[in-house]
Records
---
Amino acid sequence: MERIKLTIDGAPVEVDPGSTVLDAARKAGVHVPTLCFHPELRLEGSCRLCVVEIEGMQSLAASCVYPASSGMRVRTNSEVVRKTRKSIVELLLANHPQDCLVCPRHGTCELQEVSHQLGVRKVRFKNDARALAQDQSSVAVVRDPNKCILCGRCIRICEQVQKVSAIGLAGRGSKAVVTTPFGHGLAEGPCVACGQCIKVCPVAALKEADATEQTWRALSDPTLHTVVQVAPAVRAALGEEFGMRPGALVTEKLVTSLRKLGFNQVFDTQFGADLTIVEEGHELLRRLNESKHLPLITSCSPGWVKYAEHFCPEMLEHLSTCKSPQQMLGALVKTYYAEKIGVMPSNIFHVAIMPCTAKKFEASRPEMGRDGVRDVDAVLTTRELAAMLKEAGIDFANLPDSEFDLPLGMSSGAGGIFGVTGGVTEAVLRSVTELKTGKELEEIEFQGVRGFAGVREAVIALNGMTLKVAIVNSLGQAEKLLKKVKQGEAEYHFIEIMGCPSGCIGGGGQPFSKDPEIKHKRAAALYRQDHMKRVRKSHENPAIRELYRTFIGDPNGEKAHALLHTHYHARPRY
Amino acid sequence: MTESKCVGCTGSYTRDEKWDQLDEVMAKHKALEGALIMILHRAQLIFGYLPEDVQRYVAKSLNIPLADVYGVTTFYSSFSLTPRGKHRIAVCMGTACYVRGAGDLLTAFEKALGVKVGQTTTDGLFTLEASRCIGACGLAPVLTVGEDVYGNIMSAERVPDILRKYRAEKQQSEKVGLC
Ligand code: SF4
Ligand code: SF4
Ligand code: SF4
């Protein structure tokens, strides 16, 4: 098809058919401000901040939805355009609380950014900010409707990408709000706590439920022994919060920073991941032997688990009974480790640093503990940890390196790639093929399962049989694939499902980023870590072997079941 | 057609009958385009308003998110999420009516009924609303009670008279056991 030729502010530019005027402007290197636009979501054109003047047209056009056509002459910065944009921002600000200075999005807020960029220095309209109640019903996600600018990005990601639709637009005109049905709150509905809505919200209308206060309190309580674990995806992203290059792997500084905050022991969620792989690998082999409950579907993504409970309860017996790495490590900290150091589990305060908001929900599930003591007492997102480090005045980028504490801080490379879509599958394959064949793998990198496509499939030869696997990221993709499985159109032995697009590296608790390459950079960091590890297979982690020998006994055995496995239950969708 | 006669009347059907009717409506309209709005409209005729469990039931039956249904029921002002009175009093707030004292009229109704705009009296008899211009500017200020139109209501003193008429009707119908 013929390319479209047009001019943007006098400069000629060529774009592919189907492009919008905004695409053309960006191609021409012209910055057009946007708010409701988001590159990963369907177009809306409702905020109209991206208006431009197109020669021959009566009114201004919203460039994010207006199709580019040949011969078009576009002006992106005429006086009327600039004035219109300013008025739009002023109207938004007139309905907005004026508390930027104490706002969690101060510095990462897109409304602040456009207001500053457009040189808005005063608001000509009277401030009419609302005083609606915050929705604090969920243990993971908090909604503050007063800060909402009705851009609809959260609604679209929840509906289009996650296929949950926990929130929607209600009412009309000046009474319109983004809310849950009947205003009952996120905890009442099918929200899976994934936090993807937070990630796309341009302002502070959506945020994680705070766990920093509780963590600070524990850290300054001399009667508590404080233990922390850190998920793989955190070390691939935290540096961004401190001006480091995206994709920097900051593991050793991260360990140092946690000690500086005052944690007594710093463990690695990757140890939990190695344990999960060994348990899940044996579970897969057993199910293959018995030809029962196949496909086996992974259960380490709590957003996905909650989704399954609400939306496909009939599939629950396919879910691995393995707890997630966070909860496996949690159970060990409050049993194995507690016994070892002779401290009562209730005197250990265990914090998990996660790229995820759904992990907050997972840790709060009543089955994740024993005798009324939680295995994981608080879950901090990557962003929350960054905020704590900043509050503590820790100069992160210039910290010296240090190592995790042993034994629960020792991990294989396989445990680390858990943080990116396809990683769990690759880790499982590294172990299962060796357990099944008894022979050492020659090529341990399964390139076929890597990548970011929503659904990927691979067929692996396994000692005379072919193992069919599928890998899914985001819940919308999961829905599609599971429909096929249910209708018998697709058949697999193993399905990896990560609730968030691109896996944990793109989790709802990760730093806000506008880098279009961010997922590649964060993933590369985890694959780099894998490469640098001496041990790259979970079952070869010496600390894992030791744990089985001295404490757990057999994989999938009685003690393993009591501590490392769990169950699920159907939840209502309506 | 008992159905049209009993619109908005509470207590004329038992609960089960209403749900059966809703099922019938759903079966009929489910597959059609624009089914949701049509079904909600009929559901409101059956139940008098759109209670939560009705909206939930409709969403579930159509296999669509509850948030979508709630979005529709809160968008159109013709849908009501709270029980509505037997008689809907709508005071026109168009410019012509407004300048001729419709605001005072509304206040008088609020006082007389003990409710605010948008609310329903506890006896379920009246719902008070402010409407947009109904196009009867020649009669300003104008108000409607159900299908009845009252024009040139220049004095708020007429409010009790108007209400009396419908209260009397209620006693009548109770006597003959209509509805
Ligand atoms: S959301 Fe943005 S504009 Fe609103 S108060 Fe926070 S920083 Fe300021
Ligand atoms: S947390 Fe996830 S499921 Fe819940 S409202 Fe946000 S996007 Fe939707
Ligand atoms: S909550 Fe955030 S993302 Fe959702 S509409 Fe409001 S401003 Fe936009």
---
Amino acid sequence: MQKLWTTFVKDARLSYQGIYFYMEVGMAIIFVLVMLFAVPENFDRTQTFYALVEIEALKGELSELIADGGDHQVKFFDSRPALEQALAANRSAAGIHVHLQGQRPVLELVLQGHESESMKALLRSTLEGAMASQLPGYVDRTTVVTLETAPARLSDRVNLLPIYLVINVAFMGLFIIAAYVFLDKEEGVIKAFAVAPVQVWHYLVSKIIIMALMAVVVSTIVVISLVGFRINYPLLILAILAFNVFGSVLGLLITSFFDSMTKAMGALFFSVFVLMFGGFSYFMPWFSPAWIRLLPSYPMIFSFRELLLEQGDVAYVLQNIGLFIALSILLFIYTNYRFKKTLTV
Amino acid sequence: MIKVQGLYHSYTHDHVYAVKNANFEIAPGEIFGFLGPSGAGKSTTQGVMTGLLPLQQGVVQVAGYDMRLRQRELFNKIGVSFEQSNVYSKLTALENLEFYGKLFDVPTLDPMQLLHLVGLDGVAKNKAGTFSKGMKHRLTFIRSMLNNPAIWFLDEPTTGLDPAISRKIIEIVKDKNAEGATVFLTTHNMQVADELCHRVAFIIDGEIKLIDSPRNLKLQFGEKIVVVDHRVDDTTKREQFSLVKPDDMARLQTLLQTGKIEMMHTKEATLEEIFIQVTGRGLL
Ligand SMILES: Nc1ncnc2c1ncn2[C@@H]1O[C@H](COP(=O)(O)OP(=O)(O)O)[C@@H](O)[C@H]1O
Ligand SMILES: [Mg+2]
């Protein structure tokens, strides 16, 4: 244990002087800044409406309804030309024109042309709902609500966080730990280590701990900056540790098959690319075939998602943490064996 | 102390051997040298003896440990200095030694004293990355002394160093040996081998051609030659006479009786000349 500590202190000193620690911190800072200042908390959620309402009784109702739907604003105009002119001036606003056709109120959406289909559907159903409430026999507002809120949903900003976490926690480590090992090989210090009365696992575990510490510190700070203290941090840290150790051990294993970073690069990129496929399912929930669910990034991303939700599925997260700890142990046993054979050859 | 029997090593795991059927034993307290040109297989042999390379075929025992078993405790008893210096360039000289010293289970020497020994005490707090090649080499060298090893492996300990530092290193090796350390060293420098080694092995193309003490080799192979300066008509003439060729002996006797001899001395063959004689090749 004392030798592991000695090795760890040395590795910590080296990595603190190396570039990778600062790269990780730099990436984290950029990510947080972009998230806070360039990415709105929720995409497309705040909408300004310009309205021309020819039925006086509906005006108040409409304002109320629009205000209910979120952080929306409505501004009324007196004529169609005035409405269109205002819309031309503010390309992100949507127009509403309500007029009477015989005895029936008719709703016309005056859109800019860049709105998505779902956006149009949302506007139409919201507004139609509003008017239906004003007409006898049409009281059915529930349909309006269901369209908007998914059962459990992260804000759009926090929604990107699991992707960042998986990249930073699990897959960046693959490259960094490989770089550390190859640096030791290049400097030849690995040979000096090999003729000292220490075990190969001291060498490997020390590097794994360095990576885990970096991941925990950096990732936790990022999560705190973006979501505050409302989530289960002990569980988050446990997940970061389990996933990070898996990534590090995988990186070490790949490293053991090559004798320079350049030669290992292809294999490292390929692994990360394949492993990251799980990310597709995250953004396209309809695309999640079994083989993608088997890639490590899939359970990792979805575990982070559960961790960030108000009422996430703790059992699911714990189950994945257990899974990755078990996988890491198995991989480590093989990696240690590989390193014993190839450390200095 | 060291026993090597039927050692073969192939980097390509085929019949291209970097070391072929090496056999030798090293007694406690002995300085044993591997002398041979670059690429002869010296470092490969040392690599197997220190566990850096796997033992593929043959028997290697170091301090009673079978190298096939790869027991880590062995490394408390041995020290290894490398041909290419290998230190952490981002750590200072002192930090390099302090870190390494903590890896041993046995008492270690004081890093500052070791640095002083090779004249690096003034730069103890400087990063090894700022060192010249020679300074890094010295640091690598003293690092191998930290655990006061009973068996000391030195791969080309003086190669590439300036003469004053080489001399210093040679003196340190002699001192440690006087204190009882067994030394295995490789070199392509015949002066080092001659001065330090109790016995040398000539190695070329992975094969040991012979093993003996420098003195025996000189007695056995060195053609004894007498160099005579004598005066012939106001000029000094230098002639060499072999003491084994009857012709030369006769001419020398005549010269001794009739000539005007100014100076006369015997010359012994150098280890390098013997190496060439035995292997048909030079040391470079
Ligand atoms: N890592 C290696 N991989 C393949 N061949 C090697 C390696 N190291 C040395 N060799 C080859 O093995 C032979 C012996 O090399 P080496 O033991 O380093 O010689 P020496 O130390 O006497 O100069 C040489 O032909 C060299 O090219
Ligand atoms: Mg060599």
---
Amino acid sequence: MPELYYSHAIREAMAEEMRRDPRVFLLGEDIAGYGGAFKVTQGLAEEFGTERVRNTPISENTIVGVGVGAAVCGMRPIVDIMFQDFIALAMDQLVNHAAKFYYMYGNQAPVPLVVRTPAGGGRNYGPTHSQSLEAWLIHVPGLKVVAPAFAADAKGLLKSAIRDDNPVVFVESKLLYGVRGEIPEGDYTIPLGEAKVVREGDAVTLIAYSRMTIESLKAAQILSSRGIEAEVVDLRTLSPLDIDTVAASVEKTGRAIVVCEDCLTGGISAEVMSRVVEECFDFLQAPVKRVAALDTPLPCSDVLERAALPDANKIVAAVEASFAAYP
Amino acid sequence: MSQDLRAVLRDMLLIRRFEEKLDDLFSSGVIKGTSHLYAGQEAVATGVCAILRPDDMMTSTHRGHGHFLAKGGSPSALMAELWGKATGPSKGRGGSQHVADYSIGFLGSNGITAGGLPIATGAALAAKMKQTGQVVVAFFGEGGANQGTFHEAINMAAVWKLPVLFVCENNQYAMSTRYDEIFATPTIAARAAGYGIAGEVVDGTDFFSVCEAIERGATRARNGEGPSLIEMLVYRYYGHSKSDKCEYRTREEEAEWRAKDCIGKLQTHMGLSNEEYRTILEDVDAEVEAAVEFARESSEPEIEDLESALYA
Ligand SMILES: Cc1ncc(C[n+]2csc(CCOP(=O)(O)OP(=O)(O)O)c2C)c(N)n1
């Protein structure tokens, strides 16, 4: 199988869908000639022209709103929000318009809109360019939220998101853009709403998504050398959440650690943990624990940022603490 | 033209009488929730729609009944929606502030002040990319003109030369807040210069002035010359919403505007006898009564759809 960078897999998904469907087009700041802040859209304007790879003014709320307006009129826009932090400026059009139109207008016109946005820290960009805000989004009925960890999933899930008739927020990882992964040949899609067991184990289930899936796999490696075989479930889609795959794993291992890069309070980990407790209580041999970012803005300093974010070592420590307290 | 004007007058009266009936139904508690009445501004909706082609589109506001009816929306369907019934265009999920009928190009009333401007801009972008020749009207109030979406959407439409008419219905008060408390300039239309587009102020109580301004704007839009900002000076006769007693404005001011009533003006222009006027009114009232009956008889929405209707 050929290998591609995560970022190139995303680009390839868009290019293939744009070739397949003339209704698909891109909207965003500096996405045309410049190729976007992370060069994900580089080269697309050359192939598809600047009508379909359309640079916008810096107006996040209206960029999303224009996407919604075009979507209800039969287009399939992909909106680029340069950093997930900036979704704060687009929340009205996302929450009150994109998410509600299909429902509140009596199912007349679907809103086939994709909003792509890179999240997460680890690059020392500081508080306004590092946050993970997907918990805001899963709280909004009507939105779907996807957050892939691997290049192959990124491509297949983005293609599904583009073909989906609902608004989908596609959360990318800045730190994973430069990571290569094997990509299946040909036109393939991966269904939204399906988690995946990416490592099998019998002692504990690590539940993660996006970059924390990679950290969980690293942690599993370390734990394995200490005699603990962790199973890793990559959620891939955050809304709708595939609780069945998660529950099947937790019922097998009897122990769950939820690993999320967003901050702890009211985070994705809070929702996943609630669902695990609801579904798997009788199977649990230990309290469910969470490994998440501290409840602070993400600082710029490398030392501080590392201290705030979860990583493989913190996951290992949480697993070991669980076994120490509940052998 | 005289035949056409009869239809226009009938449309204005339909909006007025529909809402007067609605006011009764809300006051007596038959219909629950709240509504924002359009009475006094009918020349704007009917003038805009007299110029638009049937396949042109519009986005509306919280004060959207008049826009919906002028665009050709069914009074029965609208009444059913306000009543929360399954036969409303939004199946009772939307209510007064969230009615859409995509089949007539009515892209929705909107509970978010100035939320429709980006939507209209996106619809116009779709029309341009698909080369349909459609224009899109974005209605908003003067209060909405101070939202960020006003600036963002007008600028984007101007840069891309999109076929949008930004129609500001300046009815002098945003809830209780008078125009001069929130604007430092005498007109909103003057802002057009800041976006490099055409702007004008129009007497929104005069059907013909509205038509002429919209005709100019629509021609520019269809010629690829981009959007326009058209400010219609009007007055809302009722309170902002159901509970408002209008203590922030004077009865004298209300009387001054009532003297310029758009329906009275058109009736005078047409030289309509009282007899003829009464015939139209009776016809309209019968239609409103039929709408009320339709809504009353319609079934409640299915609770089974409550969650399953969320995703397409
Ligand atoms: C984002 C938002 N802010 C505030 C409100 C509450 N609100 C509803 S209508 C209104 C006044 C709007 O005034 P204007 O735009 O002039 O329209 P008018 O009511 O005069 O027709 C306000 C403050 C709202 N619905 N949405």
